[in-house]
Each structure stands twice: as C-alpha cells, then as structure tokens.
Amino acid sequence: MTLLLFIEQVLNGLQFGVMLFLMAAGLTLVFGVMGLINLAHGSLFMVGAFAAAAVAGWSGSFVLALIAALAAAAAAGALVELLVIRRLYDRDHLDQVLATFALILIFSEGTRYLFGSFPLFLDIPDYLSGPVTLPGGILYPTYRLALIVAGLAIAAALFLLISRTRLGIQIRAGEADREMIAALGVDISKLYTIVFALGAALAGLAGALVGALQSVQVGMGEPVLILAFVVIVIGGIGSIKGALIGALMVGLTDTLGGVLLPELFRLFMDNSAAQASGSALSSMLIYILMAVVLIWRPQGLFGARA
Amino acid sequence: MTRERLFNTALMAGLLAIPLWAWATDEPFTITLATRVAILALAGVGLNIALGLGGLVSLGHAAFFGIGGYAMGILASHAQSYAPLAEWPFLIEGTKSMPVIWIAAILASGLAALIIGALSLRTTGVYFIMITLAFGQMLYFFSISWPAYGGEDGLSIYVRNGFPGLNTLDPIQFFAICFALLAAALWLNARLSASPFGLALNAARQAPHRVETVGLSPFRLRLTAFVISGAITGLAGALFADLNRFVSPTMFSWQTSGEIMVFVILGGVGRLYGPVAGAALFITLEHVLGGLSEFWHIYLGLLLLLVVLFARGGLIGLIAGRQAAHD
C-alpha cells in the first residue's frame, strides 16, 4: 500500500464520518433534550434522499434537490413529532422503540408505495463531478471532498447554534432541567418540535448527500441509523462533541479497517484466506471498537450521565 | 379461573386444534402456518424472559435466533457433505439428528448471550438497547462476509433433520415437536417466574438498589436471565431453520429482532402467554393483510402504533384487563 492510497482512504473515512455525524447529531440532540430513542431517524434520512431524487429528476438542479431534502425531512419530522412522538416523551424506552419501529414500517412501505421498489438515482452535478488534485499530487473526487467540507461546515454551524444562540441556550437548558425552563416561560412543546425537526433536517440532508454516491432506495436509512447509534454510544449520548468525534472514529475505523486488515493478514496467510478473514473481521471492527470503549467508559467518551 | 387463564387455555387449545383440523382436511399449508406460530412464539418466550421478567429491552435477539439457525445449518451441511466439522482437538462430525442440533444451538446461543450480556449489561436503559442492537448487526455483517457457510446467499439443507421415532417431513409431526418445545419453554418460564430466582430478578427490575442491599447482585441475576433468554431464542432459531430448510443472514437482521419484540408486545409484555398470542396475531395478520395488499406492513405499523399508544397491555391486556399481578 502506498502513502497516496492511504491518504485517499483516510479522506474516504473522513467523508463517511462527517455524514455519520449529520445523522448522529439529530439522534443525540433528540435523546439529550427529550430523552427519546428514535429508531425512525433512518426513515427521515430516506425521506430526504427520495425528496432530493424526485426534485432533481423534475428540476435538474442539485441545489433545489438539497433544499427539498431539508424541507421534506424537516416537515416529516415536525409532523411525526406532533402526531406520535410527543405522546412518547413520558413513556419508557420500550414503548419508544416499538412506536418508532412501527413508524419505520409505515415510512418504508409508504415510500415503496409512492416510488416503487426500484432504486432511484441522484446525479452529482457537473461542477462537482470529476477529480480534483490535492497538494502532493493526490487525485480525489471533487464531490467527496465537497461532502467533507460541507459536513465540517455544518458541524461548526451546529456548535455555534448550540453555544451562541438563544435557541442553543434553550436546548442546553432543556437537557439540564426541563421543568425549570418551562417555568421560566419557554414554550417547551414548541422547543421539542423545533429540535426534532432540526435533527430530521440534518438526517434528510445527509440522505440527499449520500444518495448521490449510492442508489436511493427503501431501507437505505436503517444501516446508517445503526451506525449512528454506535457513534452516539461511543461519543456519549446527548453530546454533540462526542457525536462528532465518535463519527470520525467510526468512519475512519470502518474505511481503514476494510483496506488495512486484509493487507495485514496477507503477511501471514495466503491471499484468498487473508481477503476472507480480513473483510469478515473488518465488518465487525466498529462494533469491537464500541465494545472496547464501553468496557473502558460505560457512559461513552463524552457522556455526562449513564 | 380468571379471564386471562381462560384466554390462555383457549389460545393453546386453538393452536393445537387448528393444525389438527388442517391435518384431517389435508391442508398442509395451514399446518406450516401453525408451526411458524409455535416457533416464533418460542423465540418470543425467550425474549420475554429478558424483557418481561428482567426488564432488559434487548433489540439484538436476532443474534441468538441466527446462531441457533446457523448451528443447525452448519451441523447439517457437514453431515450432508460427510466432512467433519473439526478434527482437532477431537473429531466433531456433522449431524442430522434434531436433539443433538438443539443442544448445540442452545449451547452456542447461550454462550453468545453470556458474552454479549456480560458486555452489554454494564450499561442500562437506552445504551443497553443500542448495544444489543449493535451486537446483532455485528453478527449480521459477519455472517454476510464470512464465505465458508454461504455468506450472503445463505445455506440450504436438502432434507429436514430427523428425530428418533418420528417422521419430521410430515408437517403435523414436525408441528407436534415444535408445539411440545413451546409448551416446555412456557412451563420453564412459569417455573422461573415463581422461583426465588424469578422473584429476585423481578425485584432487580423494580428496585435494583434494594436487591443489592439484601446482598444479591442485580448484574448476575440479569446475566443469568439473559443467557436463558438467548438460549431459548437460539433453540427457536434452529427449529425455524429446520422449518425452512434454509439459513441466511436475514435471521441475524435487526428487523428479525424487531419482529420478535413485536410478538411480545402485541401479545402483552410480561404475560406468560403474550408471545404466543402475539405470534399468532402476527402470522394471522401477515396471512390476511398480505393477501389483501402488497403493502401490508403499513397496516401492521399502524396497528403496532395504536397498540403502543393506546392499548398498552397488548392483546391479552385488551381481553383480560390490566395486569392484576404485582407491578
């Protein structure tokens, strides 16, 4: 393995990581503020991807597609919050798991009903297609680089939102003591709807951005959802900083593990056995990472409470 | 006799009577449906020991279901090809004998539950849910990427495994085996909840600090429950694989975990016969709604949502009223 190839894989890992962060940020906010575990977050990812693919097919504009993804996912999130989710805040986690599992069934089959079972495709716009030359002579796809930049920019904006704005203060106060901020005159149910829609919009955006790299199909959200769970378990539930660091760790581990482990096994095995056991082990690597983090710190790297 | 008891008796009698009637009128498909109910209910009984008795919301029971399935698949495929499973440190041959496969499935899934439980039970609440889910996914991806036993394509067994003295290829005889195991698991579950262990486990769910104060370890109680729970679900997995004569990574998928949990909830959490009622309702819905619409999962989702939001006792709760028991 050459250094150039290694750097390219690191960039791929970063790209995967920042997209996971967009998913994990919404999940961890919703859990931190409302104490809700939301399995249907992956469905919002899928809603964003389908909205983007539909609008891109109709208008041909990638920017419009992204706006549609944000709007559709935020609207779906707000609607679901108003109809279902707000009845679940006082319930135990088991009820939350089941109700949001039911939402997955409804979202997935509803999407299959509207769009059919065949995957849709979302094209990368011309100005972002093709490779770009990085310092050191590395050729890297422009679109993936744009994803890394966009993801990091959104992460920075989210940190500013949480730490500097009035909404951010309310969100942090809501995590600490919801009765108290309600007593201070903050409309808590409106705040919850906004936080849920914000998380949904981030998931929808991630769906649209990733949708251009792979196909847009029913069920695309759940694998990402489970990875996002791993991310927030590693980072500590409720912590945005933990979500970012956890997402980058998971993205890098998964990408680099898939490339490096077969190489490593090749040192002492024959080629096909090394490929098989290397890829089998690398598919489990992030879960092993999670187990190690949990043995060391059961509340996650940045989790305040267990 | 309370209303719940009456319902349970009717449920088990119905589950026994319908396939017998189908056997008399020669409708093997109905027998197969009833067999699926019995097997899935058995998986649900396993989960219910962790969930209902121990309060452990495991979203990773597909791991044990799948391990049971692969225990059957691996042993039977080695018997099929006459290649021993291992020659060192001692010879292990494949087998087509159900009882041996069951023991292997119970041991393998119990061991997996011991490892997964020992790690996951360090956490509680929402962390526990996510971690069990993640361990299930870990095995799912492992089963896809490990090529020795079919990888993504799964593993087919040509002939159903045998049970001494019975012809397992006859649907009604295979149903009888599954029904008997379900009844045995229900009996075990009832004995467990009445035993000192069950009482302590129940107490650990409601007031872990008090349990600790009287000198018991909630962690050990929960881990024991988790291992028993995983082993029973693993046994169900072996039967399920035998029913289909096919194992695939789908058995490990998180949807399988979700569905096993749905059986328990549809029937009623913590009710002894809840998983039986839930699995029967699920298979009936799948059969009836699946015939009406290709998109029957929407209706299942809506029903599940309504049950969770408005009818928290599940089917048995609706029929027998709120839990009379200690809670």
Rg result of chain A? 20 Å
- The DSSP helix count of chain A reads 11
Count of alpha and pi helical runs of chain B: 13
| Class from helix and strand fractions of chain B | mainly alpha
Word description of this protein:
The complex is a heterodimer of chains A (306) and B (327). The mean pLDDT of chain A is 89. Chain A has one domain (3-218). Chain A is mainly α and 306 residues long. Chain A contains eleven helices and two strands. Chain B has a domain at 29-252. In chain B, 72% of the residues lie in helices and 1% in strands. Chain B contains 13 helices and two strands. In chain B, helix 11 packs antiparallel against helix 12. Chain B is globular and about 55 Å long. The mean pLDDT of chain B is 89. The interface between A and B is large, with 43 and 43 residues.
In short:
The complex is a heterodimer of chains A (306) and B (327). With 306 residues, chain A is mainly α.
Strand and helix layout:
The complex is a heterodimer of chains A (306) and B (327).
Chain A: H1 3-34, H2 41-59, H3 62-83, H4 93-115, E1 131-134, E2 138-141, H5 142-164, H6 166-176, H7 178-183, H8 188-211, H9 221-235, H10 240-266, H11 271-296
Antiparallel strand pairs in A: 1-2
Helix pairs in contact in A: 1-5, 1-6, 1-8, 1-9, 1-10, 2-3, 2-4, 2-8, 2-9, 3-8, 5-6, 9-10, 9-11, 10-11
Chain B: H1 3-24, H2 28-53, H3 62-81, H4 98-120, H5 125-145, E1 155-156, H6 171-194, H7 196-206, H8 208-213, H9 218-244, E2 246-247, H10 254-267, H11 274-292, H12 296-310, H13 314-320
Antiparallel strand pairs in B: 1-2
Helix pairs in contact in B: 1-2, 2-6, 2-9, 2-10, 2-11, 3-4, 3-5, 3-9, 4-9, 6-7, 7-9, 10-11, 11-12
